[in-house]
Amino acid sequence: MDIEFHYYMTYIIALRAGFKADNAYTIAYSSQYTDDNDTPYEILGEDVPYKNYISQTMDITKPKKELLRIHPYFHFFPGTKREIVNESYPRKDGKLHLLNTIPNNVNVRRLFTKSLKLPDLYRIGIATHTYADTFCHQNFVGFKESFNSMEGFIEKIIPSVGHADADYQPDIPGLVWFDRRHVSSHVEVRNKDRILEAADNIFLSYCEHCTQLKNAAKNKEALKSELDEAMGKTSDRDSRTRKKERKKNYISILKSIVKDTFRDYDEDAWFDEAVSFSPKAETIGTSKVENEYFWKPEFEKSHWFKFQEAVKFNQKLAESILYPLISKLEISAEIW
After folding, report:
1. What does the buried/exposed string (b/e) look like for 209-230 if buried means 16 or more CB atoms within 10 Å of the residue's CB?
2. Would you say residue 335 lies in a domain?
3. pLDDT in tens, the chain (336 residues)
4. Which one of 41, 129, 248, 306 is separated from 90 by 20 to 30 angstroms, measured CA to CA?
């Protein structure tokens, strides 16, 4: 999924489920920033520099062990062996994969449920991202693997990491596309159906967290209609104009709920509030100027710091949940 779900729809879902405006914003920002948190930093402050942990890597052409592990833990959460055997789409080649992403699987529900029980909005947002991704990333695995390979010349030269061969097709709301790895009855993929199912489940889980279970089922149907209308008609094509129209629809809903307190997404907002920087003296005047980064006052109370600590927590939680599965596999360091 992309920013349309991870930020705007998650923002709407959180508000409709009963989260206060500021808390809904924090959850939605954390959900989307999970995709944008792809740069490791060393922030100079007190005695020991602070180092963050990235939750996304865009460098799929040069996979490294410590980077590729990010995908299964944050974006392609594998199902259980039983789910993979029983719920994977039937493929033309008959293959199964023990790290296949299954929507709403047992493992990711454990991650999501445990995060919801904690009084930490950043952990909830990150877990929401991971949970939601299992719907649109289903039937892909989170590292370089022929299981992900699509047909065609272009696809053959793209590293088959996650859904890279399918480009952005799995993430676009309203798009109808075709996954020809599967048998004819399962080739057509309707993203809107997957997104609405994810929204339903997240909404009910949020309602339980906010103790807003009265009329939750009825309100879920209203939310589903609202998001369905905002995404517009399904199509086998997408355009910049359609994307702008959908964003306009999401913002209209949000402003109708929170009025003037609505905050649009700014990828740099949290980082800029927490960190200052200046060029390293030895690089000034060279072809590659490098920066040094410094804590701002109350750095450890900032959104960015709290988000980074939540990433580290969710990483450990994901590792503990998936350890029984991954520890038994012999996966090459070149792809894991």
Report:
1. bbebeeebeebbeebeebbbeb
2. no
3. 999 999 999 999 999 999 999 999 999 999 999 999 999 999 998 778 999 999 998 765 444 455 557 899 999 999 999 999 999 999 999 999 999 999 999 999 999 999 999 999 999 999 999 999 999 999 999 988 889 998 764 555 566 788 888 889 999 999 999 999 999 999 999 999 999 999 999 999 999 999 999 999 999 999 999 999 999 999 999 999 999 999 999 999 999 999 999 999 999 999 999 999 999 988 888 888 889 999 999 999 999 999 999 999 999 999 999 998 887 776 654 444
4. 129
In a domain, 271, yes or no: yes
Q: Which residues contact 8 (CB under 8 A, 6 or more apart)?
A: 28, 247, 250, 251, 254, 265
**Is 312 a member of any domain?**
yes
In a domain, 313, yes or no: yes
Per the structure, how many domains does the chain have?
1
